[in-house]
């Protein structure tokens, strides 16, 4: 199980500091949508330079102009970019094609997707990596619900999970054996981010 550190709603300085503090425990550095909107592709380039041996995910949340946005992220140094599952099939196919050409990956974000029919369509598009995601706003009603795993059951995706994951609920989530657990504020907001990340990685 890989641990992905989600850096969002933070200054560039805090992103760099927390990534450095937690580097030994994390496998993937996610540069969050809000951070990308604040700093653009330059923050991806800088993180790539500072962490040459880490996988970097750019949370672009692409929903249109797939070729352009995927190429933007990959050329800046991202290994993985995100595309929303509600996007048109053409957008998803375009980003997957760019990723294939450049030796990169696309993570399809299943935010607010509840239909297994759509999941089946994504499989037909040759999607490999998906994210079961409870959004920040919806977390006011509750954190990650393990019943979400039923949405992707039997489709043989690589599965990431995100949404209010912390030391209190990570064991229950890890029992479902996701490939990637994504943690944001439970690490970035901790008094000792390095310790929080180490504990989560050790689960």
Write up what this structure looks like.
- 39% of the residues lie in helices and 21% in strands.
- Helix 4 runs parallel beside helix 5.
- The protein has nine helices and eight strands.
- An eight-stranded parallel β-barrel has the order 1-2-3-4-5-6-7-8, surrounded by six helices.
- With 203 residues, the chain is an alpha/beta fold.
- The chain is globular and about 45 Å long.
Please render the helix and strand layout as text.
Blueprint: E1 2-7, H1 12-22, E2 28-31, H2 33-39, H3 41-50, E3 55-62, H4 66-76, E4 80-84, H5 89-102, E5 105-109, H6 116-124, E6 129-133, E7 158-162, H7 170-174, E8 180-183, H8 185-188, H9 193-201
Parallel strand pairs: 1-2, 1-8, 2-3, 3-4, 4-5, 5-6, 6-7, 7-8
Rg over CA atoms: 16 Å
Shape: globular
Q: Please state the structural category.
A: alpha/beta
**What is the helix/strand order?**
EHEHHEHEHEHEEHEHH
Instruction: Identify the quaternary structure here.
Output: single chain
Unreliably modeled segments: none
Determine the mean pLDDT: 95
Strand order of the largest sheet: 1-2-3-4-5-6-7-8
Helix content: 25-40%
Number of helices: 9
Distance linking N and C termini: 9 Å
Largest sheet: 8 strands, parallel, barrel
What portion of residues belong to β-strands? 15-25%
The strand count comes to 8
Fill in the keyword field for this structure.
203 residues, alpha/beta, eight-stranded parallel beta barrel
Quick structural gist:
The chain is of the alpha/beta class. 39% of the residues lie in helices and 21% in strands.
């Amino acid at each position: 199980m890989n641990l992905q550190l989600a850096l969002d709603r933070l200054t560039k300085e805090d992103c760099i500091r927390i990534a450095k503090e937690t580097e030994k425990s994390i496998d993937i550095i996610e540069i969050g949508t809000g951070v990308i909107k604040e700093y653009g592709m330059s923050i991806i380039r800088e993180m790539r330079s500072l962490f040459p041996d880490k996988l970097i995910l750019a949370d672009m949340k692409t929903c249109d102009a797939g070729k352009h946005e995927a190429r933007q992220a990959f050329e800046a140094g991202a290994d993985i970019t995100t595309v929303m599952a509600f996007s048109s099939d053409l957008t998803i196919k375009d980003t997957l094609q760019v990723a294939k050409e450049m030796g990169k990956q696309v993570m399809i974000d299943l935010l607010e997707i509840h239909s297994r029919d759509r999941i089946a369509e994504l499989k037909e598009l040759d999607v490999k990596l998906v994210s079961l995601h409870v959004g920040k706003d919806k977390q006011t009603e509750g954190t990650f619900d393990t019943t979400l795993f039923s949405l992707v059951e039997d489709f043989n995706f690589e599965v990431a999970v995100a949404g209010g994951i912390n030391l209190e609920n990570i064991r229950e989530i890890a029992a479902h054996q996701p490939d990637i657990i994504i943690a944001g504020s439970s690490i970035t907001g901790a008094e000792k981010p390095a310790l929080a990340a180490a504990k989560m990685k050790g689960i």
